[in-house]
Write a structure and sequence with these properties.
The relative contact order is 0.13. The longest helix is centred in the last third of the chain and has 16 residues. This protein has 14 helices and 13 strands. The chain has 2 domains: about 160 residues, Rossmann fold (3-Layer(aba) Sandwich), CATH 3.40.50; about 170 residues, Rossmann fold, CATH 3.40.50. Strand 12, helix 11 and strand 13 form a beta-alpha-beta unit. The model has no long low-confidence stretch (mean pLDDT about 95). The strands form 2 sheets. The chain has a 7-stranded parallel sheet, with helices on both faces. Strands 10-9-8-11-12-13 form a 6-stranded parallel sheet, sandwiched between helices. The protein is about 40% helix and about 15% strand.
């Protein structure tokens, strides 16, 4: 199996590639990962480096991937991220698959045109992306994301002390890139409108300056900490009362599954992708995207410890369906269908 990703880094897609690589190897498959620049935790699975992918370097990227395919002759080439679909069409389409880890609704029409032109088999990590692609003429099969093994969580009091937060408030943690997709400015505003809450935003990205300015401008420096990326982000998440997420679109968000697995309540926006992972009032609380007041109300509602306990119980049960061994078996079955010409 050759798993391909355009770049490494801390994102959910990269986490999933690493989990799948390790899981397939543990199941007895021979696996190689091909990745562009950036760290990728493949757990001992061989990682081959590809050039950075951009408009300027697309030819070099395609050449490197084609050479690697010719060298390894894998039974299946499984790419992650729809922008890789044109590069897969260079090889044997019958054994090539690309997984959609989320698609921007604003750009989906153009993306769908590109994918259809590539004639590559498509999977979607969630019903939201699958339905969105189907509405634009791209058929796909559902392949779930996996939940990584979660570390021992940070103690709640330890979390409050470490980040200088008031332990009597609802402690919220958000591990997410600071991008338009994740809409961290709305999250900051929501926390500002919910005086009984405090938050730690773990991550970096192009909106970092805007987020810092919003925190300072609203006088929230004592309640909201922008930490940058942390090596122990999952342990920090595990010490929180709530995972708070303000995305405007998702695929099947890994961080939501991680929170569910470790027993942290989820408060998020009802955006494509998240609404297929979180059932409002059952396994989490959902609010209208880009609406700070609605998200603030959900956060205030989550201060009810009895409610959080109920949400956590349902979330743990849901996360069990995303164990790595379960997801690996789903992928192996999908590969067999692909090679048998039974896709989608």
């Amino acid at each position: 199996m050759l798993l391909v990703v355009a770049n490494g880094g801390p994102g959910g897609m990269q986490v999933q590639v690493g989990l799948l690589a390790r899981g397939l190897a543990a199941a007895g498959c021979e696996v190689v990962v091909a990745s562009g620049p950036g760290d990728l935790d493949a757990g001992g699975v061989e990682v081959r480096r590809l050039p950075a992918l951009s408009a300027r370097t697309a030819t070099a990227f395609a050449s490197a991937l084609h050479s690697l395919d010719a060298e390894l002759s894998p039974e299946v080439v499984h790419a992650h991220g729809l922008r890789l679909s044109p590069f897969l069409s260079l090889g044997a389409r019958r054994r090539s698959l690309v997984t959609c880890h989320g698609v921007d609704p604003v750009r989906v029409r153009r993306t769908a045109l590109m994918v259809r032109a590539s004639r590559v088999a498509v999977a979607s990590c969630g019903e939201g992306p699958r339905r969105l692609l189907a509405a634009h003429g791209v058929a796909s099969r559902l392949l779930n994301n996996a939940v990584p093994q979660m570390p021992e969580p940070l103690g709640r009091d330890e979390l409050a002390v470490r980040f200088g937060l008031d332990p009597t408030t609802l402690l919220c943690v958000t591990p997410a890139r600071l991008t338009e997709q994740k809409d961290p400015v709305t999250l900051v505003r929501a926390l500002g409108l919910a005086p009984g809450t405090s938050g730690v935003l773990i991550g970096g990205g192009p909106l970092e300056h805007a987020v810092r300015a919003e925190i300072e401008g609203l006088g929230l420096a004592g309640r909201i900490v922008l930490s940058g990326w942390l090596d122990d982000a999952r342990a920090v998440l595990g010490g929180a009362d709530v995972l708070a997420l303000a995305s405007v679109w998702e695929g099947q968000p890994t961080v939501v599954l991680e929170a569910m697995a470790v027993g942290v309540a989820v408060v998020a926006t009802a955006c494509p992708g998240t609404t297929d992972t979180v059932v409002d009032q059952v396994s989490g609380l959902l609010a209208t995207p880009r609406d700070p007041r609605a998200l603030a109300d959900a956060l205030e509602h989550a201060r009810d410890a009895t409610l959080r306990a109920r949400l956590v119980q349902a979330g743990r049960a849901q996360a069990a369906d995303h164990r790595v061994d379960v997801v690996v078996r789903e992928h192996q079955a999908a590969y067999r269908r692909l090679l048998a010409g039974e896709w989608p």
